[in-house]
Amino acid sequence: MTTKDPVLQVKGLKVSFFTDDGEVPAVDDIDFYVKEGEVLGIVGESGCGKSVTSLSVMGLIPSPPGKITGGEIKLNGEELTTASEKRMRKIRGNDVAMIFQEPMTSLNPLFTIGSQLMDATLIHKKGDKKQAKKRAIEMLKLVGLGRAEELMNEYPHQLSGGMRQRVMIAMAMVCDPKLLIADEPTTALDVTIQAQILKLMKRLNEELNTAIMLITHDLGVVAETCERVVVMYAGKVVENGLAVDIFKDPQHPYTRGLIQSVPDMRYKKQRLYSIPGNVPRPGSIKKGCRFAARCEFAFERCLQEDPPLYKTAEGHSTRCFLFDDTKEDTLHDKDTTIATS
Amino acid sequence: MLQYIMRRLLQLIPVLLGMTFVVFLIIRAIPGDPAVVILGQQATEEAVAALRETLGLNNPWYVQYFEYLKNLFTGDLGQSIRTRTPVNEEIWPYLAATFELSMFAIIIAVFIGVNAGIISAWFQNSWFDYTAMILALVGVSIPIFWLGLMMQYQFSLQWDWFPTTGREDVRNPVNAITNLYIFDTIIQGRFDQTLDVLRHLAMPGIALATIPMAIIARMTRSSMLEVMKSDYIRTARAKGEKMFWVVYRHSLKNAVIPVLTVIGLQTGLLLGGAILTETIFGLPGIGRYIYEAISSRDYPVIQSGILVVAFIFVMINLIVDILYSIIDPRIRYS
Ligand SMILES: Nc1ncnc2c1ncn2[C@@H]1O[C@H](COP(=O)(O)OP(=O)(O)OP(=O)(O)O)[C@@H](O)[C@H]1O
Ligand SMILES: [Mg+2]
What we know:
The complex is a heterodimer.
Chain A: E1 6-19, E2 22-35, E3 39-43, H1 50-58, E4 66-75, E5 78-79, H2 85-91, E6 96-99, H3 113-124, H4 129-142, H5 148-151, H6 161-173, E7 179-183, H7 191-208, E8 211-216, H8 219-225, E9 228-233, E10 236-242, H9 243-248, H10 253-260, H11 300-304, E11 310-313, E12 316-318, H12 331-334
Parallel strand pairs in A: 3-8, 3-9, 6-7, 7-8
Antiparallel strand pairs in A: 1-2, 1-4, 4-5, 9-10, 10-12, 11-12
Chain B: H1 2-28, H2 34-39, H3 45-55, H4 61-73, H5 87-122, H6 127-141, H7 144-158, H8 181-187, H9 191-228, H10 231-238, H11 243-280, H12 286-295, H13 299-327, H14 329-332
The complex binds adenosine-5'-triphosphate (ATP) and magnesium ion.
């Protein structure tokens, strides 16, 4: 594999939940990739399908009611959607690891930190308890937890939220995975701890060359840590590109809204922008662009057709008819006037 | 850990005092003169006076209670009026029979109940789940005496698989040492007798185990379902752990905590159920002992019998609490 081949390649991923109200598509036709050693940000409001996407990669969609109904997920070229459960078990925790939003509940309250840290080694690596223990202590030190030996015998309830998230990260990194999926790892933490955890992940990314798929609804987090960004809305990718490009030139009206709603510390008195309306329930929009109802630029076509992803620049694409160059569109001109308000 | 157990033992003191006091009142609360009630109307004046003296009824109540406690401490449970034997000497064989039956029943109930609950939760909505839960529903609503009689009819009278009544084969009696027959026969190397004792235990044991088994299965299932939805179970799966271990290691340890409470309660109730079962299957247990004492108004025996049963209740509770603390570090360290 050459250095910048994708570790993870997701194409046309569709996941539905089969509930009493019928099939609810939680994510629909998702495309993205994560290259070796990079940090990819996946951003979007609550309920847009970020967790469903990441759980699909792990093969951990709660099933029933969830099911991958289409698309492919390739990890180092290996197709995962059709892989056996046995094969997936070998991959989980070994090639791909995941950390979750709630450090308070993600650790088992009845097992010591040490035992939980040793699990992955004992599952995936040939080795005895002694080696697993050595590795666990090493990992605790790596994530910046002092008194590692003592921590091994302590229980989760004796640790603070920030420490627990560090333990989660240590646990995920035990088998030196190629890809780390972090599903809103800092959302439940207070701001100073948040910054420390992000810094830690960035450091691990650089030192160990682990690719990270960082899921968040906080653009501030993305700006600090990610090279590339995928913006999701109601189960679809609406924009993706390099982080610098997206912050400099946000194209999709939804992305613009998101960026405007990030508080800017330079202007203390400024009123925060918020996108009018709410995220539609998955499956509730049958026709047209899913953002149309909340979009100030929506026109007739947006209500009728679902826009494709338009490539707007090198490595930058947007799912919006405003960027349809093939047709003459008067509204296109408006585009230049909406950058700031 | 040790500290926790010490604290629990200290907390036991007021409970035991309260318990003994209530039991102490059983005789004193008899309306009229307890001695007359016990001996009957035709008793002579002298006999009544003598009994009042032995029971210490002439002293103020706190002196009586203190005497009573003092006697308990020395293991003196009073004397049976009917047999004129000290209760502590004659109660043990009965207690042992009940203990053996209850243990046998609770082991069956826990082993089958917990595993059925786990598998039902693991394969939720499968045919196993449906069958187990329907059986559990039937199980909780079955009257023990009916089940007992049906089993006797079918397995004993019709098919002759198991003996109808009794603890042992009277033609080949167990040489009692501790009166726990399984134990006794094993240490004497009389395995033929062990088998015979087990055959005698089978039907009453299963009849007695049915209700607790059903309740334990349902509790385990719902507790497991709850735990298996939790974040830390998702974490365990994300490590690549085998489902078997996710269920039996990571989930079960958490799910078993509420189940333990139920097991403790059911073990207590089992003693109550044992009285009925012992009657049906003609077993010489504590239930029969108390029952006979009640029919002959043998108050010292009634009193001691109740005290022993209540004491076992308290001890089961203590054991459950200690098990909690072994399983859950949050209890241990608080
Ligand atoms: N177990 C489930 N049963 C039914 N529907 C589900 C289930 N899990 C997720 N969904 C659906 O999938 C959609 C996307 O959920 P997901 O958890 O991926 O959102 P998210 O982007 O991670 O949001 P958040 O920021 O709140 O974590 C939800 O709107 C919900 O309708
Ligand atoms: Mg989520």
